[in-house]
Automatic annotation (TrEMBL):
Reaction(s) the record says it catalyses: uridine + phosphate = alpha-D-ribose 1-phosphate + uracil
Gene3D superfamilies registered for this protein in UniProt: Nucleoside phosphorylase domain
Documented EC number(s): 2.4.2.3
Record protein name field: Uridine phosphorylase
GO molecular function: purine-nucleoside phosphorylase activity; uridine phosphorylase activity
InterPro entries tied to this protein: Nucleoside_phosphorylase_d, Nucleoside_phosphorylase_sf
GO biological process, one term: purine nucleoside catabolic process
Domain of life: Bacteria
Length: 290
């Protein structure tokens, strides 16, 4: 079936609409970062950079490191942007733009998020690294797609019961990382956890400035949840969308979290830039080891 102009939207130069890049511009190993300024923090470690392009908050650099071709792209904040970036990344490798049809032979991408996060368990240290073994989405993105087969509903149902989750809110969903890619990126320096993906930074994560919170005890309910020894370890804003869309599109994805804050102890990293750069270098070294 041919994809119509309103479904597969291309720019005048043939590039995909939002990312503004062509299929040849990306590698099959892709690092995603939220902050556009962090793209160069990753690509500065490459041996060479062959391509740079940006549109809106979406900045892309592609280069090589130890003869391995890698792309790094900024997504901006939130799973609404993840929906754009991941659908367009998949289209770049799995849709024939000239014929406007889905290719019969699919390309599998390895996608690694390098991002910051806040811990909600007291024993998750500031400046430590955490792989999201599972992601719980409060955002609702996955409910727009046929996704029952990839969800871990036993965990989400237990969470809804534990927290007394309001029926007015989107039902949380749970998706697991790619096991093989996570194994490649793991070491004794890495902790595994269940990451909660929020729909905002302030109220949805229990932060209060001037506005009153609808449920002042929500973070405590989230932190006290446990299912088969699995606890929610940290909060951020993209991982559930990354895992959900990657699973549905048959790509491999892992979220690497640099813990900059601990919401229980009130600590914040004294040198967040160094902590993030350490995680960048760690991740690149692990990718080069395969």
């Amino acid at each position: 079936m041919q994809l119509g102009p309103s479904e597969l939207i291309l720019n005048a130069d043939g590039s995909i609409y939002h990312l503004n890049i062509l299929p040849e511009d990306i590698a099959t190993t892709i690092i995603t970062v939220g902050d556009p300024d962090r793209v160069s923090d990753v690509s500065k470690h490459f041996d060479s950079i062959e391509f740079k392009k940006g549109k809106r908050e979406f900045i892309t650099h592609t280069g090589t490191l130890n003869k391995k071709r890698i792309s790094v792209i900024s997504t901006g904040i939130g799973t609404d942007n993840i929906d754009i970036v991941f659908n367009e990344l998949d289209a770049l490798v799995n849709v024939d733009f000239e014929k406007r049809i889905v290719k019969s032979n699919k390309t599998k991408l390895d996608i690694i998020r390098i991002g910051t996060s806040g811990a909600i368990q007291s024993d998750v240290a500031v400046d430590s690294f955490l792989i999201s073994e599972f992601a719980m989405g409060f955002d609702g993105l996955l409910h727009a797609y046929k996704s029952d087969t990839i969800q871990h509903k036993v965990i989400s149902e237990a969470f809804v019961k534990h927290t007394g989750w309001s029926s007015d809110k989107s039902v949380p969903y749970v998706v697991k990382c790619d096991k093989s890619l996570a194994a490649q990126l793991s070491s004794n320096r890495i902790r595994f956890g269940l990451t909660a993906t929020n729909i905002g930074f302030y109220g949805p994560q229990g932060r209060k400035l001037r506005l009153e919170l609808a449920d002042v005890s929500l973070n405590n309910k989230i932190a006290s949840f446990e299912h088969d020894s699995l606890k929610i370890t940290n909060l951020e804003m993209e991982t559930s969308g990354i895992y959900g869309l990657s699973k549905l599109l048959a790509h491999r994805a892992v979220s690497m979290n640099c813990i900059l804050a601990n919401r229980v102890t009130g600590e914040f990293s004294k040198n967040p830039q160094k902590a993030v750069d350490d995680l960048i270098q760690y991740t690149l070294e692990k990718l080069m080891s395969n």
